[in-house]
Design goal:
alpha+beta; Aminopeptidase; five-stranded mixed beta sheet; 5 strands; globular
Length: 165
């Protein structure tokens, strides 16, 4: 889906009050077994706790894109990681999700631009993210169009510890 009209969007730092909106967004995607298997109240409780941890210091940033009525239309989470072998930290984008109704309207670009600006102001050497090759954003080259390079020589490994997918 690609939209040409641009909905109103304000990008701002997330607060604990955004937990219900982010929870609803993620539940609406239907992409995550953990979320699909838990109650809406549990999703919201868990997200509130994760947001609380992210907002506790400046090693993380969570930004939301809100619509005209204040609804959460999307969000991005970035974690500032010091790497000893780099000249500056790395910004790791762990989450970038939008409600389906606004995909292709520039909100993802706006959110990534905001965290890119934050990374530059923090003196980061680079930013990194993981995108499933089955996702529509990967198939349409969303990140490549924004200047991100796919590193073909790396393998992405995951060690599942509990309740993850």
């Amino acid at each position: 889906m690609h939209r040409t009209d641009k909905p109103y969007c304000n990008v701002r730092s997330a607060t604990l009050a955004d937990a219900p909106g982010i929870a609803a967004l993620l539940r609406g995607l239907g992409w995550f077994a953990l979320i699909d298997e838990e109650s809406p109240a549990e999703t919201e409780r868990r997200l509130r706790e994760h947001l609380r941890l992210c907002l506790a210091d400046d090693s993380h940033a969570v930004l939301v894109a809100e619509g005209a009525e204040g609804a959460v239309l999307g969000y991005v989470a970035v974690h500032w990681l010091p790497y000893l072998m780099l000249a500056g930290p790395e910004g790791y984008v762990s989450d970038l999700f939008l409600t389906e109704s606004v995909r292709g309207a520039g909100l993802g670009t706006k959110l990534l631009g905001a965290v890119r600006d934050m990374a530059v102001s923090r003196g980061c050497s680079r930013m990194m993210l993981v995108n499933r090759k089955t996702r529509e954003s990967y198939k349409r080259g969303f990140y490549r169009k924004l200047g991100w390079e796919e590193r073909e020589e790396f393998a992405n490994f995951v060690l599942h510890l509990r309740g993850t997918s």
